Amino acid sequence: GNSVTQMEGPVTLSEEAFLTINCTYTATGYPSLFWYVQYPGEGLQLLLKATKADDKGSNKGFEATYRKETTSFHLEKGSVQVSDSAVYFCALSDGAGGGSQGNLIFGKGTKLSVKP
Amino acid sequence: DSGVTQTPKHLITATGQRVTLRCSPRSGDLSVYWYQQSLDQGLQFLIQYYNGEERAKGNILERFSAQQFPDLHSELNLSSLELGDSALYFCASSVGPGTTYEQYFGPGTRLTVT
């Protein structure tokens, strides 16, 4: 079945450091790919998405490119801030059941802590 | 604020009991998804409704059931509760089914089974 694997955390960085969180996926067909962020005590928020190969999603300085050849969707940010401290989830839309209804399959999450 | 509301925020109950979690989607959204977040299993999709009809089912136990009402709010019913059912339950809504539409998540209901 479809699945998402993302790097385990926690990841601890200093402010203004470069961030990469790796995400790879296994899927049949052509899923859409997403990064969600969860701040402490809150629900998930969509950070960015890409719906087809070579698409680049970007938002708030974060970027990720849909790489079909390597089945990857790595999250990057050039300069992290303390306010970026959160848990980041990579996800794909599941196309099982004769067509995607949009339900998401998530990776296990990567906790990011940014120190001043 | 995503516009998705969930009640209650916290729920503490005993094994064997039954609880109902409620979700109100964003105004205009017809699709509702339920997810469970636990330390063991991570975030897992449970079930999806669109305009009152069940559209997709994930890893939902037979002890769990859900429905979406004509006013589009949804309820997740959990019965014969076990300790392992302790988790955060999220509801998400979107305009329609399919990957075109962004899902907006509620703040979650934290269920503790003692």
Which short descriptors sum up this protein?
heterodimer, A: 116 residues, mainly beta, six-stranded mixed beta sheet, four-stranded antiparallel beta sheet, 12 strands, 0% helix, B: 114 residues, seven-stranded mixed beta sheet, 53% strand
Structural summary, described in words:
The complex is a heterodimer of chains A (116) and B (114). With 116 residues, chain A is mainly β. Chain A is 0% helix and 48% strand. In chain A, strands 2, 5, 6, 10, 11 and 12 form a six-stranded mixed sheet that branches. In chain A, strands 3-9-8-7 form a four-stranded antiparallel sheet, with no helix packed on it. Chain A is globular and about 45 Å long. With 114 residues, chain B is mainly beta. In chain B, 0% of the residues lie in helices and 53% in strands. In chain B, the strands form two sheets. In chain B, strands 2, 4, 5, 6, 9, 10 and 11 form a seven-stranded mixed sheet that branches. A four-stranded antiparallel sheet of chain B has the order 1-3-8-7, with no helix packed on it. Chain B is globular and about 40 Å long. The mean pLDDT of chain B is 94. Chains A and B meet through β6 and β11 of A and β4, β5, β9 and β10 of B.
Helix count, DSSP H or I runs of 4 or more residues of chain A: 0
Low-confidence segments of chain B: none
The helical percent of chain B reads under 10%
Mean pLDDT rating of chain A: 91
Largest interface: A-B, 27 and 30 residues
Order of helices and strands of chain A: EEEEEEEEEEEE
Helix- and strand-based class of chain B?
mainly beta
Assembly state here?
heterodimer
SS-based structural class of chain A? mainly beta
C-alpha Rg of chain A, in Å? 14 Å
> Main β-sheet of chain B, in a few words?
7 strands, mixed
Beta-strand portion of chain A reads: over 45%
Give unreliable regions of chain A as ranges: none
The backbone outline of chain A, from C-alpha atoms, is globular
Element-level helix/strand string of chain B: EEEEEEEEEEE
What value does the average pLDDT of chain B take?
A: 94
Number of strands of chain A: 12
End-to-end Cα distance of chain B, whole Å, is 31 Å
Rg calculated over all Cα atoms of chain B:
13 Å
Portion in beta strands of chain B: over 45%
Identify the overall geometry of chain B: globular
